From TrEMBL:
Protein name: Probable 2-(5''-triphosphoribosyl)-3'-dephosphocoenzyme-A synthase
Reactions catalysed, as given in the entry: 3'-dephospho-CoA + ATP = 2'-(5''-triphospho-alpha-D-ribosyl)-3'-dephospho-CoA + adenine
Enzyme class name: transferase
Family designation: Belongs to the CitG/MdcB family.
EC number: 2.4.2.52
Organism: Ventrimonas faecis
Keyword Glycosyltransferase: yes
Keyword Transmembrane helix: no
Pfam families, per database record: CitG (PF01874)
Molecular function per GO: glycosyltransferase activity; triphosphoribosyl-dephospho-CoA synthase activity
């Protein structure tokens, strides 16, 4: 049954992201990065809690018969709220995956809908479809922001920097995944890199190219630029594929911990990338 395959790959992708080690400023197998309220086990508990809800979003897309994509997105939003409650219950109130529930949930519904029509997975087309699903809802969300009283970090950053964060990324069909991380992950595996190397190098590529609102919310635009330049420099010396790069990664982690920097938005995009890559590998040959 295709929904069980999706569920399996979804759980794998979430744990593969957190398991990639060493990651700068992020939770991994060795430490908690710049986070004091969560660790690897917190993510494991959260993953177990939210995967059934992400699978329900995939199944909602797979069962969708109407051509009204906006209505499909609105139909999965309540499932997302349930997923958040399950996450908080599993983690004693720690926000491990709130952004991920939105990103992966939207993509899950799009993947289910695409599979219903084509009986295969195509990462780029699924991402574009995800953009169509949520476009109107995201436009309305931005219009409803109270400029005098922003309710979330995302709204505050939008008003301060005009950055739309993950909602803007989703609205455009996840261009950072389509044009940055998917090509990088594919080339990493085709060049014979191990899973850990491939995931770390893909993360670094995202960090070098994406404005991460998790970084912005903790710091400022100057530090955001620093994160990009450090990731680009790391890639120039081979990233996770060289001993020099791995040593530099460990040192960068210590710097990010000291600076309270966590590129969590890029980590979410990495997990989505891993999921889509592996779903394509499940296509009939």
């Amino acid at each position: 049954m295709i929904s069980s395959i999706f569920s399996e790959e979804c759980a794998y992708a979430l744990m593969a992201e957190v398991g990639a080690t060493p990651k700068p400023g992020l939770v991994d197998r060795h430490d908690s990065g710049a986070h004091t309220d969560m660790n690897y086990d917190t993510f494991a508990a959260s993953t177990t809690a939210i995967v059934p809800y992400l699978t329900r979003m995939f199944e909602a897309g797979q069962a969708w018969e109407s051509k009204d994509f906006n209505a499909l997105f609105e139909s999965i939003r309540p499932i997302g709220i349930e997923a958040e409650k399950a996450m908080f219950a599993a983690t004693d109130g720690v926000n491990t995956h709130k952004g991920m529930i939105f990103s992966m949930g939207t993509i899950a519904a799009a993947a289910g809908l695409f599979y219903r029509r084509h009986e295969k997975f195509d990462a780029e087309k699924i991402l574009m479809l995800a953009g169509y699903l949520c476009y109107d809802a995201m436009r309305k969300d931005f219009q409803k922001i109270d400029r005098k009283n922003p309710r979330t970090n995302g709204e505050l950053l939008y008003l301060r920097y005009s950055t739309k964060g993950i909602r803007g990324e989703a609205q455009k069909g996840f261009p950072s995944v389509r044009t940055v991380s998917l090509p990088k992950l594919r080339s990493a595996f085709s060049s014979g890199q191990t899973e850990n190397e491939a995931y770390l190098n893909t993360l670094l590529t995202l960090m070098a190219n994406v404005d991460d609102t998790n970084v912005l919310s903790r710091t400022n635009t100057v530090i955001q630029g620093y994160v990009k330049s450090e990731a680009a420099q790391l890639l120039k010396i081979g990233g996770a594929s060289t001993s020099q790069g791995m040593e530099a990664l460990k040192k960068l982690n210590q710097k990010f911990i000291y600076m309270n920097v966590s590129p969590g938005g890029c980590a979410d995009l990495l997990a989505v990338t891993i999921l889509l890559y592996r779903l394509e590998q499940r296509n009939p040959q």
